[in-house]
TrEMBL record:
<dbReference type="InterPro" id="IPR049734">
    <property type="entry name" value="NudC-like_C"/>
</dbReference>
<dbReference type="InterPro" id="IPR050241">
    <property type="entry name" value="NAD-cap_RNA_hydrolase_NudC"/>
</dbReference>
<dbReference type="Pfam" id="PF09296">
    <property type="entry name" value="NUDIX-like"/>
</dbReference>
<dbReference type="InterPro" id="IPR020476">
    <property type="entry name" value="Nudix_hydrolase"/>
</dbReference>
<feature type="compositionally biased region" description="Polar residues">
    <location>
        <begin position="20"/>
        <end position="29"/>
    </location>
</feature>
<dbReference type="InterPro" id="IPR020084">
    <property type="entry name" value="NUDIX_hydrolase_CS"/>
</dbReference>
<feature type="domain" description="Nudix hydrolase">
    <location>
        <begin position="211"/>
        <end position="341"/>
    </location>
</feature>
<dbReference type="GO" id="GO:0046872">
    <property type="term" value="F:metal ion binding"/>
</dbReference>
<dbReference type="InterPro" id="IPR015376">
    <property type="entry name" value="Znr_NADH_PPase"/>
</dbReference>
<keyword id="KW-0479">Metal-binding</keyword>
<dbReference type="InterPro" id="IPR015797">
    <property type="entry name" value="NUDIX_hydrolase-like_dom_sf"/>
</dbReference>
<dbReference type="GO" id="GO:0006742">
    <property type="term" value="P:NADP+ catabolic process"/>
</dbReference>
<dbReference type="GO" id="GO:0005829">
    <property type="term" value="C:cytosol"/>
</dbReference>
<dbReference type="InterPro" id="IPR000086">
    <property type="entry name" value="NUDIX_hydrolase_dom"/>
</dbReference>
<protein>
    <recommendedName>
        <fullName>NAD(+) diphosphatase</fullName>
        <ecNumber>3.6.1.22</ecNumber>
    </recommendedName>
</protein>
<dbReference type="GO" id="GO:0005777">
    <property type="term" value="C:peroxisome"/>
</dbReference>
<dbReference type="GO" id="GO:0019677">
    <property type="term" value="P:NAD+ catabolic process"/>
</dbReference>
Length: 410
């Protein structure tokens, strides 16, 4: 089974493809000034300007607010999740009921849609416990971003766009949480440019601080004959799941050097040629690293003997192209997606059923598949599936030509 996407999950954000110029009313600086007017004026006495419209996405402990419904024309009985956007007035009113006054400093600019004259914001409400019952009464709930990721129909461009927005928002809000103090002098930081950066409050320092991106190389290592791929398991993986090797880039290191170093450190395999595939933002890592960038490669092995670093991996093995294809065919990714979508729907309705993701990857007979790889929401899936369905006779050159014509969308 080969799945084609216009962009990786969390990429292709529809509200931040272009940053408006400063004088544009939808730009971060202009929108922020307009936001202050909206918040300061009493709508009963001085109605705020009607343009632009503001929509706010609340987050609680890294989880975006979401709702769920059956879409007209969609699969019968399969619900679809949506981000829980609130109007600025609604957000202000709900917080007000909890005794919290909404301030412009609490809101982070996400982007805009010029065609709709809308500016989008995010806010962290993790400390406001009283909000949960109020939002639950409206059939909203805060959902783990990973759950939404699995629940997203990757063939639905609108749903993929919402996932990208949620990922961007979570990355920014988590970065704000871990950058509350200046790394130079230790004083508190304050948000600037509608939350797009921060600045030290110390007048003698005033260091500018920008969102941090942590690059990670992820690679599918292929043997010299282009017949087998090296897949690994970590102890945190669900049972039977295998994936690509991956590791963080170190200072003073090129991406290709990182691929070779990480492969050797974790498996003892020496790598020669390295071919770029594509990249994917990954905002579902630990909150201490809220915005990882997965940079995908194919790596061709110069040696074959595996020596697993047990502190990093549980196991690593060579797998034939045929076995990898079976794993891709047997894994019922659509079933996992619809199960996760149903779970989100139940959560929003106040009923949650626990379900093991690995239990959804079964053969049609009901028996467990011997192995499976990450779903279409992960760059690992596309590295593995591209190699698995490649013509083996084309080798390295075939992969290079294949990607030059296909990765422009990813």
């Amino acid at each position: 089974m080969s799945i084609s996407l216009n962009s990786h999950a969390f990429a292709g954000n529809p509200i931040r493809s272009k940053t408006p110029k400063t004088q544009d009313p939808l730009s971060p600086s202009s929108a922020f000034e307009s936001l202050k007017i909206h918040l300061l004026q009493s709508p009963e006495i001085h109605p705020p300007p009607t343009s632009p419209l503001f929509k706010v996405l609340p987050f609680r402990k890294g989880r975006p607010l979401a709702s769920s419904s059956d879409l007209p024309g969609g699969d019968v009985g399969v619900p679809s999740w949506h981000l829980g956007w609130l109007s600025l007035a609604d957000c202000k009113g709900i917080l007000g009921k909890s005794g919290v006054e909404l301030s412009e400093e609490a809101l982070v600019y996400l982007g805009s849609k010029a065609e709709d004259d809308v500016v989008y914001w995010a806010i962290d409400v993790s400390e406001e416990n009283e909000l949960v019952p109020e939002l639950s009464s409206r059939q909203f709930c805060f959902v783990e971003l990973r759950t939404l990721m699995v629940a997203t129909d990757w063939s639905d461009s609108l749903a993929m766009g919402e996932l990208a927005i949620a990922g961007h928002a979570r990355a920014l809000l988590e970065w704000h949480k871990v950058s509350r103090f200046c790394g130079h002098c230790g004083e508190k930081t304050v948000p600037k440019e509608a939350g797009k950066r921060k600045q030290c409050s110390n007048e003698l320092c005033k260091s500018r601080i920008y969102p941090r991106v942590d690059p990670v190389v992820i690679m599918l290592v292929i043997d010299r004959d282009n017949d087998r791929a090296l897949l690994s398991r970590q102890s945190r993986f669900v049972p039977r799941m295998w994936s690509c090797l991956a590791g963080f880039l170190e200072p003073g290191e090129s991406l290709e050097e990182a691929v070779r170093r990480e492969t050797y450190e974790e498996t003892g395999i020496e790598v020669g040629e390295v071919i770029y595939h594509s990249s994917q933002p990954w905002p579902v890592g630990p909150s201490s690293m809220p915005c990882q960038l997965m940079v995908g490669f194919f790596a061709y092995a110069k040696s074959l003997e595996i020596n697993v670093d047990k502190e990093e991996l549980e196991d690593a093995q060579w797998h034939s192209r045929e076995d990898v294809r079976k794993a891709l065919t047997i894994a019922e990714y659509k079933k996992a997606q619809t199960t996760a979508a149903a779970k989100v729907d139940q959560m929003c309705k106040g009923v949650e059923q626990k379900q093991s993701l690995s239990a959804d990857f079964n053969v049609e007979s009901g028996e467990l598949a011997p192995m499976f790889v990450p779903g279409p929401f992960a760059i690992a899936h596309h590295l593995i599936s591209t190699w698995a369905y490649q013509d083996p006779s084309t080798g390295v050159n075939g992969l290079s030509k294949q990607f030059s014509s296909s990765i422009s969308n990813l």
